[in-house]
Amino acid sequence: MSNPLLQSFDTAPFSKIKNEHFKPAFMQAIEDARAEIDAITKNTDAPTFINTIEALEFSGQQLDRVSSVFFNLNSAETNEEIQEIAQEVSPLLSEFSNDITLNEALFKRIKAVYDQKSELDLTIEQDTLLDKKYKSFSRNGANLPDDKKKRLREIDTELSKLKLKFGENVLAETNAYELHITNEKELDGMPEGEKEAAAQMAKAKDKEGWLVTLDYPSYIPFMKYAKNRELRKKLSLAFGSKGFHGNAYDNQENVLKIANLRHERAILLGYPSHAHFVLEERMAETPEKVHEFLNELLVKAKPAAEREFKELEDFAKDLDSIDHLQKWDGSYYAEKLKQKLFDLDDEKLKPYFKLENVIAGVFKVAEKLFGLKFTEVYDIDTYHEEVKTFRITDEKGNFISLFYADFHPRPGKRGGAWMTSFKPQYIKDGENVRPHISNVCNFTRSTPSKPSLLTFNEVTTLFHEFGHGLHGMLANTTYPSLSGTSVYWDFVELPSQVMENWCYEKEALELFAKHYETGETIPMELITKIKESATFHEGMATLRQLSFGLLDMAWHGADPSNIKDVKSHETEAFKGTQLYPDTPETCMSTAFSHIFQGGYSSGYYSYKWAEVLDADAFAYFKEKGIFNKEIATKFKENVLSKGGTEKPMVLYKRFRGAEPKVEALLERAGLL
Ligand SMILES: [Zn+2]
Q1: Main-chain dihedrals φ then ψ at residue 209, nearest 5 degrees
Q2: How many whole angstroms from 588 Cα to the centroid of ligand 1?
Q3: Catalytic annotation on 465?
Q4: Is the pTM of this model over 0.70?
Q5: Which among 54, 465, 500, 646 is annotated as catalytic?
Q6: Residue 45, exposed/middle/buried by CB under 10 A (0-12, 13-18, 19+)?
Q7: Phi, psi for 106 (deg, rounded to 5)
Q8: Tens digits of per-residue pLDDT, 494-550?
């Protein structure tokens, strides 16, 4: 029987793939990749850039394709069987990648090329690739004695299992909880559309009444609108205590194990901490610099945050005689106060943001800026009937990229929104192989009476993920490992965050923000209010982001071996950033997937870091016109198409003419 994953394919052959194909495909692809590596090390010719560095770069391509299909499925359309396969193959994959990075013969050849670097006539991209390959070995123990190499392998295998387990626990805890409501009065305050969605959810599970879950599209509206304070408290505590119940899905041990193993790994390699290790390859470079950055913003944002909190507490007291504002009151009263100040709520805006219109809008923005054209196509194999596919071409009709879009929540999809790819971009044998990019989101579904209408937050999320998408689509580099979003972590959010800025501009909104029933363009008055309200509670929001960044650094910036209790360590890290009273039943760390499952460890600060970049970059567009083609082209040519081929600061300065300034962010956030 032929395995579709092992045949060469352009678009991923989802309809032919069965779960039983994955494991053999992984085994075979790993074996083939090993043979390719052997061919490099057994080469009797002297090591050269081409026969060693480039050969290594283009090895294991089949394995990469199989992995991207599989792990994208495990995020967007998983089930127990796929999760089991993931548990089985993840150790095999880290074993394989460790085998490469600890392959002495291979490292010897790479080092030989690296040592003669100054005599080689390399392009800038080749130079970057050589550095990256060399470091991927030295940072993975290539210079270590055998016993330490062995320990490193054990740690990596263990870490990959723990990270998977962490994520599965969060998903299990999210799915295990539901707030079942049978008395309609308990939904007082909820907009009709939200009630309808909750009723639908109950119906789908053969239950009476309404269901509210811990998925964002269900959780967020309830916290924002439901009058019933006790139920808000109940839901908020359930949301905040994922992985913190002392049951089979508890993540406390996993958190401690992950932090300690990461630290041990860093020490083995000669770094003082995991953060030092990680930040060596970041724009920020050191933990000291990150702390300095976070604390500078904290000093500037805290007075504003405290002012906002006091105002919110006074407001809740006036309105409902609430004496002490709690976590579960925040979004409810903030929404009410926002309504009072701006008379602008999501429900007023949502009719102007029908999903299909927003998609057309983001495509239009990309067309005006970068000359891209999007055509929906129906002959591409997908993993779920809801996934849409688009063919992207440039002004001359050249094929640029394939784009998959998967917008709505399903039980097998993890929460949040992300960009990913099924095929990378690269140039080989004179051919520029174009990428297959995907956006996966969890947007409110349509109901029998209404199309999918996005909240403004969902609109900016869509633009954000699409910005990552553009980084992938417009990639134009030779080597796949330097292509698209393969950049330093604290640079990767620039393309995504900068795109969000267009959602606040009249000129852009007029392109797509049209009422789903009347077709009327969003009124100027609403646009003004969107802009004015955009910085509402910006101080509190900044404080919250900084608290996550500081928590991340608290887990990774120093020796964690003395941490006995996850919750008290967290409380200590949060000191100075918390406005609400603590709730002993909740814990952020046990569901902090970004840093314990994803790749953001010692990198959460990069959201704010990138905000500085994006505010500064967009100030340039504002100055010259938000659809100024010249600026857009500079952005495309120096940032979007360049991937990680050069140091981000160099690329940025080439686009902007100067280094980014923190003032642009403070000004936009109204914190100056
Ligand atoms: Zn992002």
Answers
A1: 75, -130
A2: 20
A3: yes
A4: yes
A5: 465
A6: exposed
A7: -65, -45
A8: 999 999 999 999 999 999 999 999 999 999 899 888 888 888 999 999 999 999 999
CB 270 within 8 Å of CB 178: no
Return the amino acid letter for 77: E
Q: Which residues of 250-284 are buried (b: 16+ CB within 10 A; e: fewer)?
A: bbbebbbbbbbbbbbbbebbebebbbbbbbeebbb
282 phi and psi, to 5 degrees? -130, 165
Is 672's pLDDT higher than 80? Answer: no
Report the phi/psi class of residue 123: left, alpha or beta, with left for phi > 0 and alpha for psi in -120 to 50: beta
- Comparing CA positions, the residue from 163, 179, 175, 247 lying closest to residue 211 is 179
CA 535–ligand 1 middle distance (angstroms): 20
Centre of ligand 1 to C-alpha 419, Å, is 8
DSSP assignment string, 448-490: SSS--B--HHHHHHHHHHHHHHHHHHT---S-GGGSTT-S-HH
Cα(512)–Cα(407) distance, rounded to whole angstroms? Answer: 18
Q: Please, how many CA atoms are within 13 Å of residue 420, restricted to the half-sphere of its CB?
A: 19
In terms of Cβ atoms closer than 10 Å to its own Cβ (0-12, 13-18, 19+), residue 611 is buried
- Maximum Cα–Cα distance across the chain: 82
Looking only at the bridges linking them, the beta strands covering 399-406 and 388-393 are antiparallel
377-397 confidence digits (pLDDT tens): 999 999 999 999 999 999 999
- Confidence band of 296 (pLDDT split at 50, 70, 90): confident
Half-sphere exposure of 628 (CA within 13 A, CB side): 14
Backbone angles phi, psi at 103, to 5 degrees: -75, 105
CA of 439 to the centre of ligand 1 (A): 11
What pLDDT does residue 666 have?
A: 85
Residue 1, pLDDT > 70, answer: no
Predicted confidence (pLDDT) at residue 83 exceeds the cutoff of 90 = yes
Q: Are 216 and 277 in contact (CB under 8 A)?
A: no
Distance of CA 339 to the CA centre of its chain: 30
Q: What is the mean pLDDT of residues 229-253?
A: 98
Please determine, for residue 474, whether its predicted confidence score (pLDDT) is greater than 70: yes
- Mean of pLDDT values over 603-618: 93
What six digits make up the tokens of 76? 């967007």
Structure tokens, 413? 């999809």
Q: How far is CA 301 from the centre of its chain?
A: 24
Q: What angle do CA 132, 136, 138 make, to 5 degrees?
A: 115
Averaged pLDDT for residues 625-634: 98
Closest CA to 549 of 327, 326, 308, 297: 297
Ligand 1 mean position, distance from CA 467 (Å) = 8
Round to the nearest angstrom and report the end-to-end CA distance of the chain: 66
Interval between CA 466 and ligand 1 midpoint (Å): 9
Count of residues in the chain: 672
